[in-house]
Design a protein that fits this description.
Elements lengths: L15 E4 L5 E4 L34 E4 L4 E5 L18 H14 L2 H14 L11 E2 L2 E5 L3 E5 L13 E8 L7 H12 L12 E7 L4 H5 L2 H6 E3 L13 E7 L11 E8 L9 E7 L5 E8 L10 H14 L4 E6 L10 H4 L3 E2 H5 L25 E6 L2 E8 L3 E2 L2 E2 L5 E7 L2
Parallel strand pairs: 8-9, 14-15
Antiparallel strand pairs: 1-2, 3-4, 5-12, 6-7, 8-21, 9-11, 10-11, 12-13, 13-14, 15-17, 16-17, 18-21, 19-20
């Protein structure tokens, strides 16, 4: 690893002109390497890099990526997060996204490519070739004679006509507060009440920060048992034992008569995270030869360097595109920093709130810090980002009470969107 002026006395190598999509030109200087003729092709990433699957590099100042066979400095350690990059790599330019894609590609080896190709073949779930290998898991349904059982992947042909309307609800249910089962039980009960705005019409329920102790609130609910598949009946598939994400998918006809959804596959995407978090992905066959991918996320919290939220959402966006280009990411984005303002747009997705309510103030979409006074300012932490779907409305739902306790410190997010 060459750093600073340690190149003195070594053979100079001329900068190689590199072009990014859109015609922008970047001079990426090649760093001389005395092993360049005999070492295997690999990536060296700075110890503070947001892509940091490998931390061989002793420098925390430069971000290095193997683009074309030699080490080249392409920006600071946050380059792949589109923040704090080299001045030549503006966060607003197409080049920033290209640099991230190139770095991601460089950090993945042939084995990852081969593994993802095999998983695509085995599970019928299209995957990006250059991505952390996902972890496939079962989804469950309730049988009145045998209880919760694994559901096989759908072998039925999809419906002739895809649904035109899709309703999703996302809610961080706060694992840290007391009485997690009681609070989640009250929240789930509110979804079937006559006052709930999408009663009988929910297609997806995304839950984050579900405590292992709260599972009975889901598994014993008649509303859940009668109407939904559930991705988890315990915490066996989670990366940590403290809390995780759970997705519910409608398996019964809606109140208005829309047919049940057919689940093709379920997997977790273990992206790089300071907090061992992942993305929970469900593929739905919705007719007309269309596969829709629904991704439930709990992005990293707090302002920890390097910031990983941009990289995490970028990877989710790649998984949406690989599935055929129809789908959405929703959940707790933890968008607490000004640089998180355009998280969705920077990775080529559409922010559902801004698309549905372009004339409304951002503060009206706040989902955290609006029910009680918190340590940090209120904000639109919970979001939905879509690809080739049209958001029609986004509603912020207060959490309500379980006795004298708020069900959650987050409000819920109800999104209605259409497949045009």
């Amino acid at each position: 690893m060459v750093k600073g002026d340690q190149t003195q006395g070594r053979r100079p190598v001329n900068p190689i002109p590199t072009f990014a999509p859109g015609g922008e030109r970047l001079q990426v200087p090649t760093i001389p390497n005395r092993w360049e003729h005999r070492r295997p092709r690999r990536t060296v990433i700075a110890s503070g890099c947001a892509c940091g699957r490998r931390k061989n590099c002793q420098s925390s100042d430069n971000y290095h990526c193997d683009l074309g066979g030699r080490f080249r400095t392409v920006g600071t350690s946050d380059a792949c997060g589109n923040v704090g990059t080299d001045p030549a790599i503006s966060a607003d330019s197409k080049l920033a996204r290209w640099v991230h894609s190139a770095c991601l590609s460089g950090s993945m080896g042939f084995l990852d490519w081969a593994r993802n190709s095999l998983l695509t073949y085995q599970h019928g779930a299209p995957l990006p070739k250059l991505s952390p290998p996902p972890l496939f898991q079962s989804i469950f349904y309730h049988s009145f004679t045998e209880g919760w059982r694994e559901s096989p992947s759908s072998n039925l042909p999809p419906h002739d006509a895809p649904p035109t309307k899709i309703n999703i609800l996302s809610w961080n249910v706060d694992s840290a507060a007391e009485h997690p089962e009681k609070r989640l039980q009250a929240l789930v009960a509110s979804l079937s009440s006559d006052t709930f705005p999408a009663r009988g019409e929910l297609d997806f329920i995304f839950l984050q920060e579900v405590s292992p102790n709260a599972f009975p609130a889901l598994l014993n609910s008649e509303f859940v048992k009668n109407n939904f598949y559930i991705t988890d009946v315990d915490h066996a598939s989670w990366r940590t034992n403290s809390f995780g994400s759970v997705t519910l998918v409608r398996r019964a006809p809606s109140l208005s008569g829309r047919p049940a959804l057919q689940v093709a596959s379920v997997y977790r995407l273990p992206y790089h995270s300071h907090m061992d978090r992942d993305a929970l992905c469900c593929d739905i066959l919705i007719g007309g030869g269309i596969r829709m991918r629904a991704i439930n996320v709990h992005l990293d919290s707090l302002n920890i360097n390097p910031p990983l939220r941009p990289m995490q959402l970028s990877l989710c966006a790649e998984h949406l595109r690989s599935a055929g280009g129809v789908g959405f990411v929703a959940g707790d984005f933890n968008a607490i920093s000004p640089r998180d303002s355009a998280l969705a747009e920077e990775v080529g997705l559409v922010d559902a709130w801004r698309a549905a309510h372009p004339d409304r103030d951002e503060s009206e979409g706040a989902t955290w810090g609006v029910q009680v006074e918190e340590m940090f300012p209120s904000g639109r932490l919970d979001r939905a980002a879509v690809l080739n779907l049209r958001p029609a409305s986004v509603t912020v739902l207060p959490s309500g009470l379980a006795g004298n306790t708020l069900c959650s410190d987050h409000c819920g997010l109800l999104v209605e969107m259409y497949l045009d």
